[in-house]
Design goal:
Layout: E1 9-12, H1 27-37, H2 40-45, E2 51-55, E3 59-63, E4 67-71, H3 72-75, H4 79-98, H5 118-130, H6 145-156
This protein binds zinc ion.
Protein name: Neutral zinc metallopeptidase
Organism: Actinoplanes auranticolor
Keywords: Signal
Amino acid sequence: MLTLVIAALTVTTVGVASPASAATASTSRANSALQSVIPGAWRKAIPDARATRLISGKSSTSAYRQGIWVSRFHAAKPARLLRHTMAHEFGHHIAFFYGSQAIYGAAPTGFPQGVTSVETWADCVAAALSGVDKHGTNVRKHCSRAGLRWTKAWLKKGPAAHPRTDAAIHW
Ligand SMILES: [Zn+2]
């Protein structure tokens, strides 16, 4: 059995005060958010890209074939912010299966902000699908207007319009 070295891709968000009626963190709440923010065709194309465990700390993490590890911090956030987090992490999974594979988590070929801008790609997916203008602290290069426009158009075509590339993974 092939063993992959798993590198983690992370989004960290801080600084938003919790509301008085903070939600209880759970993977089911995270997956409800995922279901509401990710188009069905994309969810069907990458069924393992879902919340598989809750972790401590303020960072949620995605890894190839390991699902989304959602921080309790994110999982208790108001729905619109949790949707943003889940869309960001789902963006990493899109990259695992449809990315250029230039590096681990690389954006699809043609992404205007550079395919090796791994976090910028996820930032654009999060903005495109959730409509929330927010950036994790590890997103050094934010999604640009051009990046957002390109990502929206790329996503709208649906998974069937794009080649799956994970067979070419070499990292
Ligand atoms: Zn990320």
